[in-house]
């Protein structure tokens, strides 16, 4: 690990990591401190360290340095300088949804995913979808299945699941009720991040292999206000006049193709939505915005910017679980890594230090 200063000292069940930050990260040096049991379970580290405070009345962003790893501080500083120089008109944010914008642990348990929270009115169909999950999910992560074969399996899984939603007569009301009853929550600081970006007309594209209509409902119910700069690229449903699902629009997006065509799909979406609400500076801008801030919780999320010939990209990772086994790979792959289901305050801090004042 080149300039990263991660020291793993195993003493009396404590895990310590020391991380060096570029100058624009404050404070520059800090320490992660939490017990190994918290470390493994991915819970409790934040509160046990008592390091995080909500944004205070003066708008000061809480310090998350104790759960932050930066492998190459000078590279990060270089990238931040290039993005700062090009200005907000050249930046776009590309974010994964589940376990990136949302918390991994909610109320002490693994939080719901946007797909997993859905309950149909007909419980028989919930059981059928669960049976598909139990069959296909292990195949999705099987190391012995070639990618072409796996892609076909994923198409099969998503296709069957979508058909069950139609066949079972899913209503929009069930989506609303499912979201209301779900254990899903945004990371603290997500609203402040969206607000900061909205004020500067910086688009946020949320890429997901889940369901756009559910993600929108989660945004509506959990954030309570719309953001003109947030767009969702995901599987989109079509309902009839009775509010019953009749079909899916466009190309099927599953876990293995989510990144391939996402930017192509986002372009027309931006143009359309840009026209409809007068955000001309956002319309058709996806490919012109050649600097990217990418947020993800899987190494595969790094491919979300594949369709873009970007100039500078800062990638931010959230390593929520199994930290010990993944920290080396994740901290190499992402420019900034937040551990242990950290809040979004570090990203708020990062963008607000790019352009502290709004013209
Ligand atoms: Mg995710």
TrEMBL record:
<keyword id="KW-0378">Hydrolase</keyword>
<dbReference type="GO" id="GO:0008253">
    <property type="term" value="F:5'-nucleotidase activity"/>
</dbReference>
<dbReference type="InterPro" id="IPR023214">
    <property type="entry name" value="HAD_sf"/>
</dbReference>
<dbReference type="Pfam" id="PF05822">
    <property type="entry name" value="UMPH-1"/>
</dbReference>
<keyword id="KW-0546">Nucleotide metabolism</keyword>
<protein>
    <recommendedName>
        <fullName>5'-nucleotidase</fullName>
        <ecNumber>3.1.3.5</ecNumber>
    </recommendedName>
</protein>
<comment type="similarity">
    <text>Belongs to the pyrimidine 5'-nucleotidase family.</text>
</comment>
<keyword id="KW-0547">Nucleotide-binding</keyword>
<keyword id="KW-0479">Metal-binding</keyword>
<dbReference type="InterPro" id="IPR006434">
    <property type="entry name" value="Pyrimidine_nucleotidase_eu"/>
</dbReference>
<dbReference type="InterPro" id="IPR036412">
    <property type="entry name" value="HAD-like_sf"/>
</dbReference>
<dbReference type="GO" id="GO:0005737">
    <property type="term" value="C:cytoplasm"/>
</dbReference>
<dbReference type="GO" id="GO:0000166">
    <property type="term" value="F:nucleotide binding"/>
</dbReference>
<dbReference type="GO" id="GO:0009117">
    <property type="term" value="P:nucleotide metabolic process"/>
</dbReference>
<keyword id="KW-0460">Magnesium</keyword>
<dbReference type="GO" id="GO:0000287">
    <property type="term" value="F:magnesium ion binding"/>
</dbReference>
